[in-house]
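Standup, Tuesday
Yesterday: got the pipeline producing structure tokens again.
Today: sanity-check two examples.
Blockers: none.

Example 1:
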Amino acid sequence: MAKSKLLLYLIGGWIALEALTFVIVVHFLGIFAAVALGVGTTILGLFDVKRLLDYLRARFGGSKDDARPKANAVDGGLQALGAVLLILPGFASDLVGLALKAPSIRSDIAKRLNERPKGPRTIDLAPTEWKAIGPSRRRRVSVVKSGPPTA
């Protein structure tokens, strides 16, 4: 499957999921409460972006005597992703954005992203260091029975 087709399917699935969650929220809360909740999560996302930008200005453009530990790039990226997901319309993206506001979830995701795979993922060999073995070259191994020789 082409990557562009896969991307279209993912975007279509995301839009369908957002529409379904909106219908469910409207069913339980009503249209005015659903719209107010959507506007509220967008405002929360905008405040989160503002807070993140203020932090970055203070961290990288501020004084040198700042005693805070060095910012983790993965954690900051996950915070920014959560803020963007809160700004986007829809309740499914809001749910993921709210989950990314939790430090424990962000640290678990960052830990998984920072893990190094064990062992090499690929092995580079020179052409003289390997040979292809096709199905016709395989030999059958004969089983030797142990016991006294027969006459």
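Example 2:
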Amino acid sequence: MVRAGDAFRLSLSQAARTAKVTGPDGKSRVVEIDPRSRELVFGETFKQGVYHLAAGTNSTTFCVNLLDAAESNIAPREELPFGRYAKVTATRLKQANAELWRWLAMAGLGVLLFEWWWYHKRTV
């Protein structure tokens, strides 16, 4: 992952003269590389998305993202801002996952046991 606007660096295992970079919009671009260099630096990462890079036998895919810490924070918030004037705060804790399947399974088992008992009571 690369932050939008930062340079992407790739170590080259063999010397290459050119590299082909395909951006997130699908347009390809050829980048000249110094043959003595062992590293490719691509700095035109202004659009976010998936980039494909091919240089000689090296081929890689990298993503350009905003990498915003506020966007990535998924922790529950104590206060939510709604508009300019209203804010909602957490007032009480509520259980969200009430599992009913155990009670339904026990009720089904009870019905099956009753049917089994009723059947054997009549036949014996």
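Quick observation on example 2: The chain is about 20% helix and 35% strand. The first strand starts at residue 2 and ends at 3.
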